Each structure stands twice: as structure tokens, then as C-alpha cells.
Structure of Adenylosuccinate synthetase:
Amino acid sequence: MANVVIVGAQWGDEGKGKVVDIYTENANAVVRYQGGNNAGHTLVVGDEKTVLHLIPSGILHKGKRCIIGNGVVLDPKVFIEEIEGLKKKGYMTDDSQLIIDRNVHIIMPYHKKIDIARENKPGERRIGTTGRGIGPTYEDKVGRRGIRLSDLINPTVFAMKVKEFLPEKNFLLENFLKDSPLTEEEILEEYNAYGEILKKYVGNASLLLDDCRKQGQNILFEGAQGSLLDVDHGTYPYVTSSSTCAGGAAIGSGFGPRFINEVIGISKAYVTRVGEGPFPTELHDEMGETLRKAGSEFGATTGRPRRTGWFDAVALREAVRTNGLTGLAITKLDVLDGLDSIKVCTAYSYQGELLEEFPQDANVLKECKPVYEEIEGWKCALSAVTSYEEFPDKVKNYLNKLEEITGCPVVLASVGPRRDQTIQLRNPFAG
């Protein structure tokens, strides 16, 4: 029995969906524990691509329990559309496969309007949000003004809460954000219909997971976004609104932290970032565009082009420490095929000082310049490689260098989007 947490070790978009899909083979239950539909996990089975935003990536495997934990914020419209899309493809033939914790907070129409209006307000500092209402929903959760799934499926309670909270939201929309107000009637008509559909999925994630543990089953925890976007440990304020680090798995699911056995960090062989915020190794030249095109670096949720840069070991060491990583999964190695040389950032230069640790102040980080070590490229295609032994020595050298400068062993390497383009060096479920 093993309980494994998957986290993004960079700024998100590292390929967590594929790794979760691979590891689900060994798991009995898969849990999504934070974030909302600002996440997009892309899975490729055969030649078919599936993009998930809320439902755990393990849903493509029959017989696996997929659980949405209390730490997630849920847009019911998006969730229902996602279920319909999966069923059209022949997945989720058994509705009991999916459980949503009753304490999940619901993204309301005013959350989305506020999110978009704030980003578009003249003179405001842009954070680069997806405009999905994630941040405002978490604000209301912490401010004790949130509406949970247990409220949504009770029409009387839901109507009472909408009546209580809507006047304040409309005041903000009209008087500060200069946007149009919402009416109780339109919200209730739309959301009561969602509540009726969602009733059959409601459960107690914490209790269910503890039962799985007591039965000796394997549990896989699926994180969204990346460690450097953590609301506490990321590049604040250019972060998401939830705890993306491994500690969030326990909080966002009601699972005891002492029962977690492994934490695997997912990292690209280079780095990308979406939205605003400091990014020391960002490339603004032809090489940056080469990585973007070769890696198809466009957001699965927004379609926005991602910013690209060389691998940043300083940032990765931060993720190793804050998550307690026991292994690294390196994705998109094949994107570096054909390059004469590859750069890896091993330290930062800041006002004449050499920094080997990640600055806690985003204002300092944006002034940091990368200090690179150059590694010889392998100049051949990796997409057909099926084992570590088949890797050219120069690829092995690159992976060894990443292990050496991050202090964390590589346990998986991906050379393409398909399941069969994955090389496992160690299975975290095997002990």
C-alpha cells in the first residue's frame, strides 16, 4: 500500500495529467485536492486527446474511484459539460466512479464577473488570471461568505445565501468595477438545475479515503498548477489562490499527512510560465519561440501562448524543499531533440551577489539574472525510446546533471504525449 502525491514543481503546465494517468494504473483512487477549472490536464490515449479541468485524470481508467476533494472550487456548468464530454467518448459509464466532497466551494456567476472586471480595470496591476472566478471564490471561502456544494443541493439554503450575499457583490460590481449587476432570479434558475444534477455525486472524501487506506488500497493525489504558484510559497502576488504544494493534499482532501508515502514533482526539461510575474530564465529570442513551437506551449485552459525558458535548478530546489519531493518526473525531453547545446540555470546573479537559493521576494526575483551551465545536446529523436538503457549517453548526462543540481532523483522521463512514450526508472507505488 502506498499513497502518492503528484505536484507541479515549476509554474504549472508541467505535464501532471499524463503522469497521473500513468500512475493511475497502480492506484485504486485518484484525488484532485485544490484549484479549479483554471487548470487544464491534457491526456493522450492512442491518438485521442482529452483535456480535463476539474475531474481527476484517472477517470480514463475503468474501475478507479475519482474524488474531488474539499480544497477544490467547482464551476458546476464546466463540471457538467466535462462529464458529458467524457460520456460521449465512452468514459464514465458508471456514475459511482466519481465523488465530489460536499464541502467543495461553488464558483458563482458574480465570482467570474468580478475576476474579469478586476483584470480589465484601468490602472490595476494585472496578475494574469484565467478569469474563471477562482480567486474571488477562494476569497469568499476564507471570508466565510462561500457557498458550498451542500448548500447548492439544498434549494432553500441556497436561495437564502444568494439573497444574503448578492447585494454586496452587486454593489462592488456596479460602484467600483463599473459592471452590470446580477439578479437573484437568474442565478437561482440556472444553479438550482445544476444542484439537481450534482446530487448523485456528493460524498465525504475524507471518510472515503480513510476507508481506502484501512483496506490497504493505493491512493494517488493529483495537484493542479505548480509549486511556484502556491499562495504562500510562490512568487506572490503572481500566484494562484490555493495551496499547490504537497501539504495542500492533506488539507484539500481531509487525509492525514502522516499517511503520505511519496511526493513526486513534475518538471519539464525546460520551463514555462503563463500569466504575469518574474521568470528569471525566460527567453525572448528565437530559442524561446523554438521551444514554444516544439513543445506546443499554449494553455490547455485558455489557449494563451506560454512564456518559455531554460531549466531553472534554483527554482526546482525550492520545490524540492517545500514539497519534500522524493522523486522527479521529467517531461518533454523530446522537445530538446536536435539542439547543439542546452542551458541549465544553476544560480542567480543579483546586484553583484551570487544567489543559490530562490528569493522569497518577487521584487528581488524579477531583478535576478540566470547563471548558466551549458550541456551538450543529443541531436537525435527520442520519441521511440522505450527504456532508460536506450537513451543516448548525452541524455543520461542531462538527467544526471538535473539530479545532481536539484538533489532529487529522476524517477520518470517522458519523450512524447502518449502513454507508451514514458520511461519509468522507479515506480513510487512499488516502495
